[in-house]
């Protein structure tokens, strides 16, 4: 294995963090700030509550909000220093679709990357996911992939609101053939806000996937799902969901604090007057703290890590 990347002394690979979460039956929040100025409040909430944490951004978020991988990595490093972060953290590249994007993130110091080949036929998904795992592991970086199609309501991460639930037997074969560290599964949740359809989780499907594979399980579309539903998914016998993605709830809190309804670019957010930035940061920090305490059951779990 080659030498690990530049952030790894401060941030950990995803697999290491999720191993502890699975064993102790809690979930680690994977929070997407979408704006580099909002990394600090996410880290502050985790530090105050002594919770492990994942900070993430996806390929499409970088494109939509105007952020490059190296810019996000540099902002993350600076935020770690400003906050004085001591809890376990992961810097994760969420939904991405080309190996070149994963390579750029790894070069920028990300300690975890995701290859999303879920829109491809099964064999093509296996092929590109195995390539992503080989690339990531050669740099000491963890890899997450997706099997099944997770629906959407906001079209940030996917182009169509289509769902195709993960087949447990296919999940077992996929993990065996690719060597991925974590698997995002489609069991009923959706990206974005639940406006028309209600959130749901197919617990029987989750149990069947777990019975056939010990891969770390990831739930995308965590925003808007009731806490009791998430907690049941996390605490399934034998280990349930250990990573939950949360993005929309953070942005909604930020925009509400500013009296806005329209997304900004990263540059526009950074250029906000100081008093508006403080309001936005406070709203994001409060939202992250609420998720950690009542949603993920991860408060005070930093003590479980060496």
From TrEMBL:
Keywords: Calvin cycle, Metal-binding, Zinc. GO terms for biological process: reductive pentose-phosphate cycle. This is Class II fructose-bisphosphate aldolase. Dihydroxyacetone phosphate binds at residues 192, 221-223, 245-248. Zn(2+) 2 binds at residues 116, 146. The keyword tRNA-binding does not apply. Pfam families: F_bP_aldolase. SUPFAM superfamilies: Aldolase. Binds 2 Zn(2+) ions per subunit. One is catalytic and the other provides a structural contribution. It comes from the Bacteria. Pathway: Carbohydrate biosynthesis; Calvin cycle. GO terms for molecular function: aldehyde-lyase activity; zinc ion binding. The active site is at residue 94. InterPro entries: Aldolase_TIM (IPR013785), Class_II_FBP_aldolase (IPR050246), FBA_II (IPR000771). Its cofactor is Zn(2+). Zn(2+) 1 binds at residues 95, 191, 220.
């Amino acid at each position: 294995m080659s030498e690990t990347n530049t952030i790894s002394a401060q941030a950990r690979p995803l697999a290491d963090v999720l191993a502890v979460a699975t064993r102790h039956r809690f979930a680690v929040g994977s929070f997407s700030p979408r704006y580099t100025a909002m990394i600090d409040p996410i880290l502050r909430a985790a530090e105050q509550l002594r919770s492990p944490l994942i900070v993430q951004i996806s390929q499409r978020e970088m494109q939509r909000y105007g952020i490059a991988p190296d810019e996000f990595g540099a902002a993350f490093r600076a935020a770690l220093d400003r906050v004085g972060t001591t809890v376990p953290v992961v810097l994760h590249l969420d939904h991405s679709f080309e190996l070149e994007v994963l390579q750029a993130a790894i070069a920028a110091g990300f300690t975890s990357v995701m290859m999303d080949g879920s829109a491809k036929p099964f064999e093509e998904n296996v092929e590109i996911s195995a390539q992503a795992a080989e690339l990531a592991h050669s740099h000491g970086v963890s890899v997450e992939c997706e099997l099944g199609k997770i629906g959407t309501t906001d079209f940030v991460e996917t182009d169509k609101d289509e769902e195709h639930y993960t087949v447990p037997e296919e999940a077992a074969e996929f993990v065996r053939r690719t060597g991925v560290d974590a698997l995002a599964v489609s069991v009923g949740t959706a990206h974005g806000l639940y406006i028309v359809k209600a959130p749901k989780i197919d617990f029987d499907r989750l149990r069947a996937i777990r019975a056939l594979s010990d891969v770390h399980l990831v739930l995308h579309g965590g925003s808007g799902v009731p806490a009791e539903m998430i907690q049941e998914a996390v605490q399934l016998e034998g280990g349930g969901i250990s990573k939950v993605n949360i993005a929309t709830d953070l942005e909604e809190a930020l925009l509400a604090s500013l009296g806005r309804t329209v997304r900004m670019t990263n540059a526009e957010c950074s250029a906000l007057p100081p008093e508006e930035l403080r309001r936005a940061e406070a709203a994001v920090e409060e939202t992250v703290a609420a998720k950690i305490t009542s949603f993920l059951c991860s408060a005070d779990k930093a003590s479980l890590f060496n």
